[in-house]
UniProtKB/TrEMBL annotation:
Parts of the chain that traverse the membrane: none
Top EC class, one word: hydrolase
Protein name (Swiss-Prot/TrEMBL): Ubiquitin carboxyl-terminal hydrolase 2
Composition-biased stretches (Polar residues): 1-14
């Protein structure tokens, strides 16, 4: 919906217009000072969301920059400029291109811009159109450009578009940073808002678009210049008294009774009559028929030459040959604009009429302003007052340096600096000249320019402020003479002359290098920059000289260097200081520097001290500071930090890498660390050096159990859960008085107790062995795997087994690290069914955990009833695991753990509450709110063990996924339209996220795994998802919801544009590009075929418009996504810390699993890959690279305040072996 108000017209004409029937228009009331009217736009805007003109900042700042004052001066000087260069354009040119012609030729002309200062409805000098649905406001200012009083009259039309969006109205900016953009870069919607149809005219001289880079309202300005509407012949018909008399006399002869011959019309009468003719069609309301003019009754032919009505104004003769029928201007916007221009031109020319002693009514009724105040009001700049008062008399256009920088003498120093910076950004090729122009402004300002001078000095010291003089001096220093002002010296010539200078006077290398850097900065030469960066020796040359490959390992590089050194030494008679030897040494330095290889650098330090001094040393504390670590940092932490710092080393300063290596070596020697020393020698960590008691126990893969091993390691590292399992004894439970209970909504059967007890015992046995074994890995029993894999619905047949037999078997395994664990533990027929062992366990709380874990390895089995499983069932364990989903295994494990536990309480719905629920279970709340306010809202509670991350939603990170999970949706139910929302009612102590990566391909009819990365961090905050009445959070949630809906709409638009034709499999863009290629490659060269170039150009313009539209959509989506990511940055009260990540590599139907677990005490990550446990850098854990097939499927976080209390992955209690003499 849009509203247009127009300023213009005398008071008698300022009558209210009828209400429009256009659904995109509304009426506005007239202000007390000015009359306003609605003006219809015949081109209806689209229903889809408004898409503004979006030009990326990095693209926009490269386009020609101009200030508003420069643009208006260019507008004002355009007619005079076109008189000198008919095919030129001030508006479309860079200021650098016309910096000289403006002071020398144009500034001396008395060219003025005039805007009518009266409210005349049919001559609106200023009009406003507002499109309500998108808060887009377009202000149009119409005016005249005059050079002399009667000659060289031109028109201008300035449109200023501001898009407020749905946010608050933003005030003015200090100064707009306008950049010239092409019409093709303007969005289709903005062209419509700017009424593209009205611009067209055969009198159009110039038309340019400028976009503000710093406008909070996405401001766009369009500047258009037209020729005058009336020719000299046309004006003679209105002003030549002889012609007027002849025309009047002829009219009397045709109709003597209607006209008197006592007086004749004056030019003023003729002007007034023609304005009235123009006024009627301009103000014709929507829905009314055009008003015809009767020649006979109006005696129109006596006042004006009616030929102009047919030739220029679109009039037609009626059927009676006496009626004049004007055009319907609502159907022809460009003609309507021409009418307005003609009326404005008549008013101005009418004011110039000389009537002797008579009063010129035009002179008294109308006035024009020459300070562009209406334009400055529209663009809303902070310096509006100074621009209006000082711009007219400013002499800056007489100085080429002001013109070139788009600056003016009345600008503040800060603004001149900004002009310089924007000009350099937009036209870096001419930076050299802009620096000189900046200097000229400094020296020509009539008052002190302290800020300009300070800025110049700072930039010069940084190497960013060099001019022509600096350039010429630097060239002369390296031996280049006679360079011109307008062209740079060839880069290769500069480099060669520099090399010659360095070779001829190597002692002045530093001086020559500085001069080369000045030249490089001035020319902005990538070639010279690359040379400076690689000057030591080109890596390619170094590789060639050493006769190696780019991928050759560091150790092999050293061998290759020594072989080549022997060859070179022999060729130079073992002269170690020869250029050949030095060059070879520099080749090795180059490779070491480019690779950032501490191994090669150490070799250089040890073998070539004269080339690279290795005498620098650090104290222990200095080494800690340089590496940014502490004395308690682990070896792996030191290695990780060292490698990260090494990647940041400046290639041009190899000493940085050397210093890092020396500091690292200092710490290795002080800590007497074999691991660090080994790493210094080989660049790798030797796992055999890690002591068993300081390293977690691995788990053997007994066959397709890698995901079970990951799950067991995960549960082991959770201290409360591990303690509960180690302490468990069924004798401590009594379910006789326990009411009916449910787990996961399923009733627990009494028959399931025995299976659950046996599962906990088997897990207890494994955990005890993981704590006490001297081996680096242990093997889970097949019974444990079987109970973990077997679905809960299937029964298990047990037979009792001797506890002592289990202990003996296990002890035998524990004592012999090389003996493979044997699974047949059924015992023998002679073994009693149940072995009762004296009960020595008195542990009953967390306080006694240390005692439990420090018992002998299998004292935890005392007084337990250990049962075996039938052999035929055990044999199916692996096959069950192969067929089972990971989540099924997790459900089996947690159900059995809960079933074995005495409930702490029973919830109202019969659900058991216990340690497992406390650790892992949370609650969500779904609220359904009918849109019908008479119907009540309702809510339901649901428990969760993990929050779902759906890959099919393509979230950009974990927060985006949770936003989708907890989003609000509008759905239609039986009760009507409702809003459904999901919030977190209760959070668990340990929060699990389950990534649903297995999707279904409907074309291939098969499941597949998505490897789309979903980034997550080490910390996550859930404040935004909690059930709350906090108004701020609710408001922010709503904003995120609205932004996401906008993103969805934009994605739909983008998909519509990219949609492929089902037959051709091409999108509209592909089709247009293919058509253009065919026309250019096939049709144009063919002598038998022909195609107009205009057709190809039109197709190219359509391609550019579509591409611009797509870029605008992508930029808007990116902007909205950034807003969403920043929305809850200050809400960090409910925090969790990452400690476990389950990884899967492979396909949907198969693959391999492992887990990363974080050691909170040591702040390191370990990779648990079955029997191998290794420490890894965080870069491996949080690897979200595209194409990485090792994808997280479970991420687990713990509450911040519990992370050190709950997470303990390293738990080893190894008794010292008794000595046997």
């Amino acid at each position: 919906m849009s509203t247009e108000s127009s300023s213009g017209g005398d008071n008698s004409a300022a009558t209210p217009r009828p209400k429009t029937h256009n659904p995109f228009k509304t009426e506005t009331s007239a202000s007390p000072a000015n009359s306003s009217s609605s003006e219809l736009v015949d081109e209806i805007l689209p229903h889809f969301p408004y898409s503004p003109t979006i030009v990326p900042r990095e693209t926009l700042e490269k386009l020609p920059f101009k200030t508003s004052n420069r643009i208006l001066d260019d507008l004002r000087l355009t007619p005079a400029y076109l008189a000198l260069k008919p095919k030129g354009s001030l508006l479309h040119s860079r200021t650098y291109d016309y910096r000289n012609i403006v002071p020398s030729a144009l500034a001396k002309l008395n060219s003025t811009g005039l805007v009518l200062n009266n409210c005349v409805l049919h001559i609106p000098s200023v009009s406003h159109v507002k499109f309500h649905s998108d808060s887009v406001v377009v202000t149009t200012v119409r005016g005249l450009i005059v050079t002399n009083v009667k000659e060289h009259l031109h028109h201008f039309r300035i449109q200023v578009l501001n898009a407020q969006g749905n946010g608050p109205v933003v005030g003015s900016v200090a100064k707009h940073e306008y950049h010239l953009i092409s019409k093709e870069m303007v969005s289709v919607d903005d062209l419509r808002c700017l009424d593209e149809q009205a611009i067209q005219s055969d009198k159009l001289l110039d038309d340019a678009f400028f976009k503000s880079a710093n406008s909070p309202t996405n401001q766009l300005m369009r500047v258009t210049v037209y020729m005058g509407e009336f020719s000299a012949e046309d004006l003679a018909q209105l002003t030549d008294t002889d012609i007027i008399k002849q025309r009047y006399q002829a009219a009397i002869e045709k109709n003597p009774s209607a006209l008197s011959n006592k007086s004749y019309p004056t030019p003023l009468h003729c002007f007034t009559t023609l304005i009235k003719v123009l006024k009627g069609p301009i103000l014709l309301p929507l829905g009314q028929k055009v008003h015809t003019i009767n020649r006979s009754s109006t005696n129109l032919d006596a006042q004006i030459n009616s030929e102009i009505l047919f030739r220029d104004l679109g009039f037609k003769v009626g059927d009676d040959n006496d009626t004049l029928v004007p055009p319907d201007l609502l159907l022809n916007r460009s003609l309507k604009e021409a009418y307005i221009r003609k009326a404005m031109e008549l008013v101005y020319l009418g004011k110039q009429l000389k009537l002797g002693n008579k009063i010129n009514e035009f002179d008294t009724q109308y006035s024009f302003l020459d300070n562009f105040s209406q334009v400055y009001s529209a663009i809303a700049e902070g310096d509006k007052a100074s621009s209006m008062s000082m711009a007219r008399n400013d002499k800056s256009n007489h100085w080429h340096f002001y013109v070139a920088l788009s600056a003016y003498s009345f600008y503040s120093e800060e603004l001149i600096i900004k002009c310089f910076e924007n000009m350099v950004l937009s036209d870096s090729e001419n930076k050299l000249h802009y620096v000189d122009y900046y200097r000229s402004i400094m020296s020509n300002r009539p008052y002190q320019s302290q800020k300009l001078q300070t800025y110049y000095n700072n930039q010069y010291l940084k190497g960013f402020m060099f001019g022509l003089l600096d350039y010429h001096n630097a060239l002369k220093a390296i031996g280049v003479h006679g360079a011109g002002d307008d062209a740079f010296v060839d880069e290769e010539t500069v480099i060669e002359m520099y090399k010659i200078a360095c070779r001829s006077d190597y002692k002045n290398y530093t001086y020559f290098n500085k001069q080369l850097r000045i030249i490089c900065e001035i020319q902005n030469s990538s070639v010279i920059k690359k040379f400076l960066r690689e000057e030591m020796v080109s890596p390619r040359a170094a590789i060639q000289e050493l006769r190696i490959e780019e991928a050759t390992e560091d150790e092999v590089v050293i061998t290759a260097y020594e072989i080549r050194l022997d060859e070179v030494m022999q060729s130079v008679n073992f002269n170690t200081s020869s250029p050949e030897v030095v060059f070879l040494q520099k080749c090795l330095v180059s490779i070491a520097t480019v690779r950032r290889s501490f191994l090669l650098m150490a070799y250089i330090d040890n073998t070539m001290p004269e080339l690279m001094d290795s005498g620098k040393s650090f104290s222990f504390s200095e080494a800690l500071d340089l590496l940014g670590v502490t004395a308690t940092s682990s070896d792996m932490e030191l290695i990780t930090i060292f490698e990260a710092l090494a990647k940041q080393v400046d290639v041009e300063d190899p000493s940085q890498f050397r210093d890092l290596r020396v500091a690292f070596k200092t710490l290795a020697e002080d800590k007497k660390s074999k691991i660090l020393s080994s790493y210094l020698r080989s660049g790798r960590v030797d796992p055999s050096l890690l002591p068993a008691q300081n390293w977690p126990t691995g788990l053997d893969n007994i066959g397709n159990t890698c995901y079970l091993n990951s799950l067991l390691q995960y549960y082991f590292c959770i201290k409360p859960l591990r303690n509960m399992i180690l302490e468990f004894d069924e004798n401590d439970t009594d379910f006789s008085n326990t009411p009916a209970r449910k787990i996961g909504g399923r009733s627990v059967e009494v028959s399931e107790l025995d299976r659950s007890f046996q599962f906990v015992y088997r897990l207890q046995q494994l955990f005890a062995e993981m704590i006490h074994t001297r081996r680096r890995c242990v093997q889970p029993s097949k019974e444990l795997a079987y109970l973990s894999f077997l679905p809960l619905s299937q029964p298990v047949s047990f037979k009792t087994t001797s506890a002592s037999k289990l202990i003996d078997d296990a002890m035998e395994i524990s004592d012999d690290a090389d003996l493979e664990i044997i699974d047949g533990r059924e015992g023998s027929p002679e073994t009693p069914d149940i072995i009762e062992v004296p009960d020595t366990s008195d542990v009953d709380s967390m306080e006694g955990v240390q005692d439990v874990s420090e018992q002998s390895p299998f004292e935890a089995l005392e007084d337990k009833k250990i049962k075996s499983i039938e052999a035929d069932q055990i044999d199916s364990a692996i096959e069950i695991g192969r067929q089972q989903d990971v989540t099924e295994c997790i459900e089996n494990v947690t159900f059995q753990l809960e079933t074995a536990l005495q409930p702490d309480s029973i919830d109202d719905d019969g659900e058991q509450y216990d340690l497992i629920k406390k650790l892992f279970c949370g609650k969500t709340k779904q609220t359904i709110t009918p849109f019908d306010s008479t119907k009540p809202s309702r809510s339901t509670m649901e428990r969760f063990f993990s929050l779902i991350i759906n890959v099919s939603d393509h979230p950009k990170d974990i927060y985006d996924a949770l936003d989708n999970y907890f989003s609000e949706n509008v759905v239609d139910l039986e009760e009507g339209t409702v809003k459904m929302s999901l919030t977190v009612l209760e959070l668990p102590e340990i929060l699990q996220f389950h990534v649903q990566r297995v999707l279904f391909d409907r074309e291939r009819l098969m499941a597949y795994k998505s490897i789309e990365p979903i980034p997550f961090g080490e910390d996550i905050y859930l404040d935004r998802y909690l059930d709350t009445e906090d108004a701020d959070i609710l408001k922010k949630r709503l904003e995120v919801y609205e932004w996401k809906q906008e993103i969805k709409n934009l994605q739909v638009q983008r998909d519509d544009i990219r949609q492929q034709d089902p037959v051709t499999k091409l999108s509209i863009l592909d089709s247009l590009q293919a058509t253009i290629k065919y026309l250019v490659d096939v049709v144009q060269p063919s002598p038998e075929l022909s195609i107009k170039q205009e057709t190809i150009d039109t197709l190219k313009m359509q391609v550019e418009m579509i591409q611009t539209k797509l870029r605008g959509i992508d930029n808007k989506i990116g902007s909205l996504q950034h807003q969403i990511s920043e929305q809850f940055q200050d809400y960090k009260n409910v925090g969790y810390t990452l400690f476990a990540i389950f990884i899967h590599r492979g396909e949907a139907s198969h693959g391999h699993y492992w887990i990363y677990i974080r050691d909170m005490e040591r702040n390191i990550y370990r990779k648990y890959n079955d029997d191998t446990v290794t420490e890894v850098p965080i870069s491996e854990v949080l690897n979200f690279a595209e194409g990485n097939t090792a994808t997280p499927y479970y991420m687990v976080y713990v509450k911040d305040n519990l992370k050190r209390e709950y997470i303990e992955p390293l738990k080893r209690v190894i008794e010292e072996e008794e000595s046997h003499e």
